[in-house]
Specification:
Elements: H1 4-24, E1 33-35, E2 41-43, H2 44-61, E3 66-68, H3 81-95, H4 101-109, E4 119-127, H5 129-134, E5 139-146, E6 149-161, E7 167-174, E8 177-182, E9 189-190, E10 204-206, H6 215-225, E11 232-233, H7 238-244, E12 250-253, H8 268-276, E13 280-282, E14 303-306, H9 311-322
Parallel strand pairs: 3-4, 10-11, 10-12
Antiparallel strand pairs: 1-2, 4-5, 5-6, 6-7, 7-8, 8-9, 12-14, 13-14
Bound molecules: adenosine-3'-5'-diphosphate and magnesium ion (MG).
InterPro entries: DPNP, Inositol_monoP_metal-BS, Inositol_monoP_superfamily, Inositol_monophosphatase-like, Inositol_monophosphatase_CS
Cofactor: Mg(2+)
Keywords: Hydrolase, Magnesium, Metal-binding
């Protein structure tokens, strides 16, 4: 069960983070980015966005349990002082008043939960950080999980091109429907998956980064399915948004390394947006995503999201090609 208070708090939190990230993208200077232990990049904006989401949620909902991507320990050492200052400045600007660095680190630290309780939030403050750094697509992804099931998903996609020519939308999935708030619109519009008559007319999307999803395997799968359209390569959970509103009808995330387990914040919000828009999301073996195993999807590998009708056929071909 999701309350209106929770839905509204989540929408407000994601919008606030999106405003912060839009202002920061393209203005990052040397020293505002670092490479984490797992070799992935992180910027001042990733940390600051996590802080403003926590501030917004806790201000409206009181204490929360959150599995967030960023860890304040990455900002703790003396040689990270300028990074810390950059994060604190971004948060202060977004909130409209000066905030102490210690407060900012405390907010980021709220994201340290292990994801093993009955009810928790999960946040990717900037999903697609490589896209963000390139000046391309990224998403702010926030979800609420209850008894291992996603019950609320909010995806902020500040650079996503909309059908009416505007740029940027926030997607909210809850209570049996998915809606989008395109930039500038006050009223939400309902979103639904595309339903191409045949698989040959389908378009699939995948990561820009071939290290995150095998482009070669995807090309082989598309060819066996008779898909002729070029892949729609787009960073982040914007891929789920694209499937949810029919810009594409299949999202393939195909393992590039044995043993890699997807992180829950990379999928929870997006997968629920697709499902509430009428689509189906599983792993590459056709199994449901299982959010009961902590910070990663330990029991799943890869992702396949579709408009639903062709899901079984897509899984069949994915399994053949990956075998
Ligand atoms: N080998 C790998 N396989 C799958 N996903 C990976 C990966 N290495 C990193 N990632 C994840 O891919 C995400 C970006 O996905 P995409 O390629 O769809 O934009 C990253 O999220 P962050 O950008 O939040 O760190 C990171 O968590
Ligand atoms: Mg991510």
């Amino acid at each position: 069960m999701v309350t209106d208070l929770e839905r509204n708090a989540a929408l407000h939190a994601v919008r606030s983070a999106a405003t912060l990230c839009s202002a920061a993208q393209g203005r990052l200077v040397a020293g505002e980015t670092l490479t984490k232990g797992d070799d992935s990049p992180v910027t001042v904006a990733d940390f600051a966005a996590q802080a403003v989401v926590v501030e917004a949620l806790t201000d409206r909902l009181g204490s929360i349990e959150l599995v967030g991507e960023e860890d304040p320990a990455d900002l703790a050492s003396d040689d990270q002082a300028s990074l810390r200052d950059g994060v604190t400045a971004l948060v202060s600007t977004q909130l409209g008043h000066d905030v102490a660095a210690g407060q900012v680190l405390d907010w980021i630290g709220v994201g340290g939960s292990d994801g093993r309780s009955d009810r928790y939030w999960t946040l990717d403050p900037i999903d697609g950080t490589k896209g963000f750094l390139r000046g391309d697509q990224y998403a702010i992804a926030l979800a609420l999980i209850e008894d291992g099931e996603v019950v609320l998903g909010v995806l902020g996609c500040p650079n996503l091109p909309n059908p009416d020519g505007s740029t940027g939308a926030v997607f909210v999935a809850s209570g049996g429907e998915a809606v989008a708030y395109p930039a500038g619109a006050t009223d939400p519009v309902r979103v639904g998956v595309a339903e191409p008559a045949t698989l040959a007319e389908a378009r699939f999307c995948e990561s820009v980064e071939s290290g995150h999803s095998s482009h070669d395997d995807a090309a082989e799968i598309a060819s066996r399915l008779g898909i002729v359209a070029e892949p729609y390569r787009i960073d982040s959970q914007c891929k789920y948004a694209a499937v949810a509103r029919g810009d594409a009808s299949i999202y393939l995330r195909l393992p590039t390394r044995p043993g890699y387990r997807e992180k829950i914040w990379d999928h929870a919000a997006g997968k629920f947006v697709v499902e509430q828009a009428g689509g189906v999301v599983t792993d590459v073996d056709g199994a449901s995503l299982d959010f009961r195993h902590g910070r990663r999807l330990e029991e799943n590998r890869g992702i396949v999201a579709t408009d639903g009708r062709f899901h079984d056929r897509v899984i069949e071909v994915v399994r053949d090609v990956l075998a």
